[in-house]
Amino acid sequence: MFDQKPGLLDQVRARFAHVDSCPFDGPRVFFENAGGALTLNSVVDTSAKFAAIPDNQGRDNVASHALVATIDRAKSDIRTFFNAPTGAVFVGESGTELTFRLICDAILGAAPGGIVLGATVEHPASRSACTRWAAVAGKEYVQVPHDDALGLVTAEQYAQYVTPDTRVATILHTSPVTGMAMDVAAIARLIRATAPDAYIIVDGIQHASHGRIDIASYDIDGYVISPYKVFSRHGYGIAWASDRLSALPHNSLVGGPEGSWELGTRDTGSYATFSDVVGYFDWLGGEFTDSTDPRERIEAAGQAIHAHEASLTNAMLQGTGNLPGLAEMPGVIVIGGVDNPAREGLVSFASENIAAVDIVSALKAEGIRVHLRKDDHYSGNILTPLGQKGCVRVSLCHYNSQAEVAAFLAALQRIL
Question: Which UniProt keywords apply (predicted)?
Fold first, then answer.
């Protein structure tokens, strides 16, 4: 879709720092976006601006009032980005920390007994939190087996395990190992049909950079993202919690504001930098719609991002120009299969002939930045059932180009 807008990709890339060169290692193609996306230049500037301000929120001076206004504006922007008109939005230490907090409060606050339901495809953040707090609360933790071949889990698979006494359920929106997106709305609807009072928590960390978050349509209770994976910076996470989840007991100051999730003074700059992210989606969407409504522009940006990334992953799999794709390279195994419509901007693969760690190292020498996933606590749930010790994760974003895909394929062809 970007190809239909001459010069747009150049405009997009110009808005990001270090888009084609590492500040330590020189020129490179960046295909490690699932490990942390590129940072908007505006985020860099905003971070420096707010880092220099000595005042805190809640004081009676002009600077403090400005900080509070910045946070209020950012919370409004987050709601627009999430399409979450109700509930609470707040920042925390990281996406993982917030995932633990929401799951902990849901499990401890839910009715006694029953089960906590998740899926084997999930990131260890949610699986670890469920394992710990289900045991503390005396609840059984049940994991729905995912489809190993497709690298995802469906509502139909959840249907075999959800019970009327399901107290808490977790859903992974997109896998950072397989790159496959789950149908959150369908899974949540299936859970609600059998356990209408269950608290449903969603890990949206990998999904967020690809756009198209629509909390109002999901019927869930919690959603978590990590802003450093969606064009902001490290040092904070963002969560949304439904009103009924917020009403459960959770860590807060005695006598403090009712329903507050935040502990201590938060960094105003973290909130402000996410306004930069939302503003970027708004700008990009304006290139694809004449609407003046911010939410409609954000939705248009998400659709354009999805289409552009699909064209890039298709080229990576099927080839481009006279370069063969991964599907045509002898001995290459594509995790989740070649023809998988659930794929979002990520391709993981292994070779029958060369170890994944050696491929990653060889690509680095060719100026292509990718990442090794091993059968450890992060990715063993995906790789071990496939009999793979490791895989090469090639994760891209909408600022990547067909020329970069071609450079990757040419380098890989030489290596293999």
Answer: Lyase, Pyridoxal phosphate
